[in-house]
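Hi! If you just cloned this repository, the fastest way to understand the data is to look at a raw example. We've pasted two of them here, unedited. The first protein comes first, obviously.
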Amino acid sequence: MTATTPVLQSVIARDRGLLWHPYAPLHGALPYEVVGADGPRLHLADSDGVRRPVLDAMSSWWSVVHGYRNPALDAAARGQLERFSHAMFGGLTHEPAVALAERLVALTPDGLDHVFLADSGSVSVEVALKLALQYQVATGRPERQRFLTVRGGYHGDTFAAMSVCDPVDGMHATFPGLLAPQVFGPRPPIARSADEVGSLTRESSEEVRAWAAAMTDLAERRAGECAAIIVEPVLQGAGGMYPYPADCLRVLREIADAHEMLLIFDEIATGFGRTGTLFATEWCGADALPDILCVGKALTGGYLTLAAMLCTTHVAETVERSEMGAILHGPTFMGNPLACAVAAASVDLLLERGWQDDVRRLEVGLTDLVAAERLSSVDEVRVLGGVGVIALHEPVRVVEVTRAAIEHGVWVRPFRNLVYTMPPYVCSADDIAHITGAMVAAVEEVHG
């Protein structure tokens, strides 16, 4: 420990070598300091002390859909703080948890009538996988200890969640000896727009037919090992911001039914309107309802960490009748009342604001990203709901692109070969035009 007085140094200098940041070394690129936030904007300071407001094109990793310092969410947090901020959920219950669970059951696709409140998206995936394994044990198939999924997926950073991420490109190849081996099928065919997500049928799409045949064959060979299928419906997030046809979900539902596997949809990134439907599974209507659903990120409007797993009565009662009786999981902060109160207010606000109009406005504005297609560095542009992606031919120079975008008044966090945005729903048409213009300009300045 040194004798320096931290208050005499900048926050950025004090951070250096002290704090790890996601997927970054201790002494990596200097971060920017957040000194304030309001609406869709962050107020940043750099290492030279220069301060500027920037539009948050990332919604703080896809969660701050209602913007910062939202009056309704602030009021919900203050109101719950005045009552109690936390109580263990073992043997106790409280109004915020019950009220949130009631909202989630009413809002999510039909049949998902039972709720497990987790403290992060990754934990909700862990719980979903555990539940699927317990279900198979309860039905007399204890040998089913693996999961069927597709390449390109991303489900979180805890160990079971890592095991169902892409085994090569999923950021977790460093841990092959510790991760359970899973069964991976081919990545679904890409869909570059909402029309391609929703309008294709297996009869009209040769790519989808070929993919379906490959997945069906794989399932026939490996189903005896597999407890469930898990995918991110319609849009793979951190695996590449990769949309795919909704018909693929129908194929997976048919495969699950044919081989007595459960179907898990990870809607942590796609839920609450981001793809243009309230939940991405709704692109299929009632043709591909999941047995288990995970939600998170936008659930609390980015205020607090909270996620949920929902399942059908059939799954819940099967486990309840078994020797185990309960889901074998119970986080310390399960059902945290402060987070639940804010989440309930966030869900109410989503419906009151009219999320459909918000996401439609985002989608219309994000189509301006097609201006990037004239650049030699750009491979393609993809837009789906409130998601806009510029895919490059080469890996993004993250530090340079981030700095260039900030100079244009926008915060982005590129990865791999992607410069993308998932902006807050409260962004105006002018805000979206500002974001798209800054993204195109940053790519042009850095990559050409």
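Ok, and the second one:
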Amino acid sequence: MLIHTAPRRAAAVLGALLAGLLLVLTGCSTGGDGKGSSAGTHRPSATSTAGGRSSGDGAAPGWAKGLPTVPAGRLPAEARHTLKLIDAGGPFPYPKDGTVFGNYEKQLPKESRGYYHEYTVDTPGARNRGARRLITGKHHEFFYTDDHYKSFKAVLR
């Protein structure tokens, strides 16, 4: 039993060290909104591009892996509301919110199962959950789709 748990512990320690290094290298960014952060708030390690530009106008964070980007402030109001719910840890209006997103369409960077989670973004006039979602990554990455997983933008916060 010890043989199987030692590599897992080593991987967990290495992951924690890498996450700490990433925070130091990115300057412990709070997203540049001047509000700071509160306990329990999850934020990605990147800020929006200069002037709030999107879709490749400036340096995208490494975790975006070449995807177009969008500043959180430019998302639809319903998506910004969902971001606030995610930051607060809920409550979420849909039972599927927070469930594992499988990335079966392979539009997001390849990661192990359980890395991504999905949240519904309300669509005005939709009779069901609609096509809009926010996907979060284990390292506080955020991705937005408005076409039910056909395309994504990395959300800069």
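That's it. A detail worth noticing about the second one: The first helix runs from residue 2 to 25.
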